[in-house]
Amino acid sequence: MVNVIDRDTVMCISLAARPGNHGNRFHNHLYAELGLNFVYKSFSSTDIGATVGGIRSMGIRGAGVSMPYKESCMPFLDAIDPSAAAIDSVNTVVNNDGVLTGYNTDYLAIRTMLVEHEVSTEQDVAVLGAGGMAKAVVAALRDTGFTRVTVVARTLERGRALAERYGFDAVSDLGDARPDVLVNASPVGMAGGPEADELAFGAAVARAASTVLDVVYLPPETPLTQFAASLGKTVLRGDEVMRLQALEQFVLYTGVRPTDEQVDAAERYASA
Asked: Residue 43's beta-bridge partner residues?
């Protein structure tokens, strides 16, 4: 276990308008568990261009990027991985000898979940939301092979702009439609939010679905996932999205892939 920071310690960071502790706890726990001479620390930035320059000049190995920097950091990078190019959004920067490449592990996590849980691409899908996470979801659905996807957005113009980019349709309300797969990529059900106790989709819509994915990870069990689970539906939770995207960041930074047991322990520690 690494107990000291020395001149050889490799630094990774996260950038967010309001930095939290989840990434610090998750990554540092795994560094210690695996005996890696790395340290992870969260920061904010008043000048994203200067901060990216600092990542390059100081040899910081990697950076997790949250809002509002996911798009604004991109002009300062040297290369954009297809995972980020698919949605014009970066949540991970990797520094290889001064060459900075942007990735999006949210997109990678959604694709991984859809494949690992064997969600059939022949099904109709409804995605609630039109923000950054909804973009990652819709792009991942397209690139996994789904062809019948509808974006549901309160502001139809935003929903249509997102849907049309990936060749899908948008509506402001599902009406009588009953999709097989429901994805909540909105803040509905998020702890502390104004709709924390609300179902992201109506009860009748949820009853008709076979699979429900809620990207909200706080709380791990949202009103939608609780309701779907009570009906015996296949439920994919936001904490799994968080776990997978953090794992892929860790692998990109270190080149080491922890075991499932180690990742589960790190996620429990980070969420405690």
From this structure: 15
Q: Give me the catalytic one of 41, 70, 135, 233.
A: 70
For this structure, is 70 an active site residue?
yes
Under 8 Å between Cβ of 212 and 228: yes
DSSP string, 119-175: --TTS-EEEE--SHHHHHHHHHHHHHT---EEEE-SSHHHHHHHHHHTT-EEES--T
Residues in the chain, overall count: 272
Cα 130 from chain centroid?
Answer: 14
Place of tokens 């789904």: 146
Helix H segments across the chain? 22-34, 48-57, 82-85, 105-116, 132-144, 156-165, 203-208, 223-230, 238-254, 260-271
Give tens-digit pLDDT for 212-249. 999 998 898 999 999 999 999 999 999 999 899 999 99
Whether 142 shows a pLDDT value over 70: the answer reads yes
Question: Domains of the chain by range and CATH?
Answer: 10-103+241-271 (3.40.50.10860), 108-236 (3.40.50.720)
Residue pair 262/32 in contact by the 8 Å Cβ criterion: no
> What contacts 252, CB < 8 A, 6 or more positions away?
62, 92, 94, 103, 105
At 239, list the tokens. 């904490």
Q: Rounded to two decimals, what is the model's pTM? A: 0.89
Tokens of 222: 């949202």
- First CA to last CA distance, the chain: 21
